[in-house]
Amino acid sequence: MMKHAAALHLARFFVVLDSETNFAGWRDAARRLVLNDVPPEDIAWEVREGAGLKGAGLPDIPEGAELRVPREAVSRLETAFCHSDPNRFGFLYRILWRLRNEPELLKIASDSDVRRFETMEKAIRRDIHKMRAFVRFRKLGEGDDERFIAWFEPDHFIVERNAPFFVRRFTGMRWSILTPYASIAWDGSSLLVGPGATKRDLPPEDGSEELWQTYFRSIFNPARLKVKAMQAEMPKKYWRNLPEAALIPEMIAGAEGAAKEMIARMPTVPAPHHAKVQAKHWPKREPQADNDGADAATIDELHDAAMGCRRCPLWEGATQTVFGEGPDNARIVFVGEQPGDQEDIAGRPFVGPAGKVFNAILEEAQIDRQITYVTNAVKHFKFEPRGKRRIHMKPNTGEIRACNWWLNHELALIKPDLVVALGATAAQALLGKVVPITKLRGQVVTREDGLQVYLTVHPSFILRIQEPAAAADERMRFLNDLKDVKKLMGV
Predict the structure, then answer these.
(1) Kind and range of the H or E element at 72?
(2) Where are the alpha helices (DSSP H) in 102-193?
(3) For residue 99, which of 13, 34, 25, 194 has the smallest C-alpha distance?
(4) Percentages helix, strand, coil for the chain, rounded to the nearest 5?
(5) Cα–Cα nearest to 333, from 208, 392, 211, 420
(6) What is the pLDDT of residues 168-179, one digit of tens each?
């Protein structure tokens, strides 16, 4: 405190910012000072909430003077500005001061200032990620009064910077996120930033806690449990605000037994009735070209024709063709990648672990199953035998093209208003080319024939995420994708 007071006393200039997050005010003051060759040690910085930007005789910018620094550096300075270090304003000014004459400064990894700067950036990125992963909403009100309220305690001043993410993610909801230093609220059309709050302002529990716990149990994989890694990704300080955290001790304690039980339930290769099912559908092993489904007038007829499909070699190892299911006048067709182990045995799509996730989220999105049809881009299970297990293998381009015969016939008979591509393989089958799902996710692509294709991830992607909070976050993203589909269809 005495050191800070001494710095204020000795400084030639002092700048008062009206908030911890007033980067625009800091940048304006820093620009004026650096263009007048004011060294870092001659400036003192202070925050006084509500004071407005003030400076002790800040100089004007000299006529014709320009501050040239890399654009990326300005963006990085804005990120580091969110750090909670009270000395950051002077430190970031020193970075700016040096950048003027050392434009490549931030590429020098051995520089002590650069190392400190990168540590600050990393802390901000981590805090932003934690907020996205660990915000848990509670419902307040019903109907037109319905709102969702959440509480979060960040380490740094990242709430305003993180707000656009939550607007994009929860556009269709009215919500507020309360934190100790600032609160943000979205009313469906505009974002509001207000003062901080306390956890006492959070509504009482609404039952969503039980849903989070149920979901946490469903995605918990005891065979992949790494306690230290989990606690690094989900530090204990966040546990008090996470409803699922109450389950962690008991699930860690029972992980070993659960893992053994799960391994014991693993499917074997081949299924005991594999040969019988194959014999029923393919009594002869030679190709049968007499019924390729070209004349099928209904989905049932196309289904029967597909049972003898041998358009690519995948039929030889699979138990049976797994065709699509749903009404032949469905408005929405969901296309996945290929059947998995359980689908191959059951002969039905989306009945395995990923299918269960998909069905649960489809129900949460309130999409009527009576208007949906589910199928896969490839109709036979492609796998690699590994001991007694069959390990999923990604279909190649030739197999996707071969099976397009059936997918195109399905779409021609159903004539849906919208097709949802679940993952990269489905997108490739529907659009005829490889597309970056993560980049185009949530977009609608219109094919040359007029068919509209909505792009999102496959639900199995959620199951592959090992960190529970990240998996929960991804599940919420997928739910919002399906809500977008519902909105697009007006159902």
Answers:
(1) helix 71-80
(2) 112-134, 159-169
(3) 34
(4) 50, 15, 40
(5) 420
(6) 888 888 999 999
How far apart (Å, rounded) are the C-alpha atoms in residues 153 and 302? Answer: 56
Burial 391-403 (b: 16+ CB within 10 A, else e): ebeebeeebbebb
Q: Low-confidence residues of the chain, pLDDT below 50?
A: 1-9, 215-216, 219, 222-225, 227, 259, 263, 281-289
Cα(106)–Cα(85) distance, rounded to whole angstroms?
20
Q: Can you give the C-alpha Rg of the chain in angstroms?
A: 29
Which run of H or of E encompasses 15?
Answer: strand 13-17
Q: What is the pTM of this model?
A: 0.49
Q: How far apart are CA 400 and CA 341, in angstroms?
A: 18
User: Strands (DSSP E) along 36-189, which ranges?
Assistant: 43-47, 54-55, 137-140, 147-151, 175-178, 182-186
- Contact present, 305 and 296 (Cβ < 8 Å): yes
Q: What would the two tokens of residue 395 be?
A: 């279909």
- CB neighbours of residue 422 within 10 Å: 28
Which residues lie closer than 8 Å to 425 by C-beta, 6 or more apart? 337, 338, 377, 378, 394, 395, 400, 458
Rounded to the nearest angstrom, the gap between the alpha carbon of residue 346 and the centroid of all alpha carbons in its chain is 31
Q: Where are the domains of the chain?
A: 2-129, 135-201, 208-264, 274-489
**Fold adopted by 274-489:** Uracil-DNA Glycosylase, subunit E (3.40.470)
